[in-house]
Amino acid sequence: QKEVEQNSGPLSVPEGAIASLNCTYSDRGSQSFFWYRQYSGKSPELIMSIYSNGDKEDGRFTAQLNKASQYVSLLIRDSQPSDSATYLCAVGGGGFKTIFGAGTRLFVKA
Amino acid sequence: GAVVSQHPSRVICKSGTSVKIECRSLDFQATTMFWYRQFPKQSLMLMATSNEGSKATYEQGVEKDKFLINHASLTLSTLTVTSAHPEDSSFYICSATRQGEKLFFGSGTQLSVL
To answer: What is the distance between the alpha carbons of residues A70 and A72, in angstroms, rounded to a whole number?
Structure first.
């Protein structure tokens, strides 16, 4: 069974610090990797997508992918209280089905 | 980015009634739509995959006769929860994709069955 694993947290970091979120996946054939942010009672919103090994930066966010280790991470620099949310790692295969991790709750303390 | 509209955002109904939730892609044609259910503090659980003009593919453990999905056009999919019971109370979210690109989510529907 294809799985996506995340530490449920909560992960607590002070304002201005770097938050590091990690995710592992079981299907070596996975081709697409996503990070979604979900506020309580809201639907997920896409913040990063990555398709090849290495780093991808977008503003304060950096996604890192290592297919050999089946590992994907998200770094949030200069964390803000508004970044407090649940972050969902999602992995897609050659088809259209996307598998979501259980999410990591992040708290950024002011 | 692409916009997916989902209605209603919140519904409260009596046990035994049916509830219909609509999911529309407003500015693109969605080849595939997905329906998820999310219980409090849990992740998204895929219920079914819906392709326009064909029957939905349900995930294991999801009752297709209880959760009716209709994907009548490339911009509209509906989920009907038939004979709803309190255990069906959950947050239901649709998403759409065009040609296998990233998922675009609707705003979700909070269903409360009394």
So the answer is: 7
How far off is chain B from A16, nearest CA to CA, in Å?
A: 26
Please say if the pLDDT value at position B3 is more than 60. yes
Of B98, B39, B106, the C-alpha closest to B79 is B106
Given a contact cutoff of 8 angstroms between Cβ atoms, the answer to whether A10 and A105 are in contact is yes
Does residue A108 sit at the B interface (CB-CB below 8 Å)? no
If you search the block for the tokens 């996946």, which residue do you land on? A25
The predicted-structure confidence for A6-34, as pLDDT tens digits, reads as follows 988 899 999 999 999 999 999 888 889 99
Compute the distance between CA of residue B108 and CA of residue A105 in angstroms, rounded to an integer.
Answer: 20
Kindly list the distances between the CA atom of residue A97 and the CA atoms of A54, B76, B113, in Å, as whole numbers in the listed order: 23, 19, 29
> What gap in Å lies between CA A86 and CA A40, rounded to an integer?
8
